[in-house]
Amino acid sequence: MYKNILVPITFDETRDSKTALEIAHAISDEGAKITALHVVEEIPSYVAQYLPEGQMTENVHEIEKILAEKIANEVGVDVKVVQGHAGHSIVDYAAKNGVDCIVVASHRPGFQDYFLGSTAARVVRHAPCSVHVVR
User: Fold this and answer.
1) Which residue range forms the structural domain that includes residue 30?
2) Strand partners, 4
3) Which of 46, 67, 91, 101 could be bridged to 2 by S-S, CB 3.0 to 4.6 A?
4) How many CA atoms lie within 13 A of 89 on its CB side?
5) Which uninterrupted H or E stretch holds 28?
6) Strand, helix or coil at 126?
7) How does pLDDT run across 20-35, given as a tens digit for each residue?
8) Which is it for strands 101-105 and 28-40: parallel, antiparallel or unpaired?
């Protein structure tokens, strides 16, 4: 069905990333590209100025290693880590990389989500492609 699938991964245990990856495999064409994407929230400049030079780059590399270990059993899944706001970064990555489907794990919406919106809700509203939400 899909040739280029993006699966946003969070380290939050309330999100079912494993099932999201299983669904990505199930709906992918033979030879499809599946990318596991983790978004590191940007550190405010007033905090970043106190970090050692190169600290954020080092953090991104460390998170890439951890994510690769987390999905080590997944065959044919690339790992990518970007910095930014989660909802915006996922949508931007999908648009820039020709993604034709996003499989995003979500939690059960709470009362605050109806006013602020969750990352999954933002992705559903703004994605340039199909979105499958896993609960």
Assistant:
1) 2-134
2) 33
3) 101
4) 16
5) strand 28-40
6) helix
7) 999 999 999 999 999 9
8) unpaired
> What is the biggest distance separating any 2 CA atoms in the chain, rounded to whole angstroms?
48
Please state whether 98 falls in left (phi above 0), alpha (psi between -120 and 50) or beta.
left
Query: Taking a C-beta distance cutoff of 8 angstroms, is the pair 46, 66 a contact?
Result: no
Backbone dihedral region of 85: left (phi > 0), alpha (psi from -120 to 50 degrees) or beta? beta
Q: Which residue do the tokens 């006013």 mark?
A: 115
Predicted TM-score (pTM) of the model is 0.89
| CA distances, 32 to each of 2, 21, 64, 79, 109 (Å) | 7, 13, 21, 15, 31
Q: Residue 27: count other Cβ atoms within 10 Å of its Cβ.
A: 16
CATH number for position 50: 3.40.50.620
How many domains are contained in the chain? 1
Q: In this predicted model, what pLDDT tens digit does every residue of 56-102 receive, in sequence order?
A: 899 999 999 999 998 888 888 999 999 999 999 999 999 999 999 99
Q: Which residues of 60-95 are buried (b: 16+ CB within 10 A; e: fewer)?
A: eeebeeebeebbeebeebebebeeeebbebbbebbe
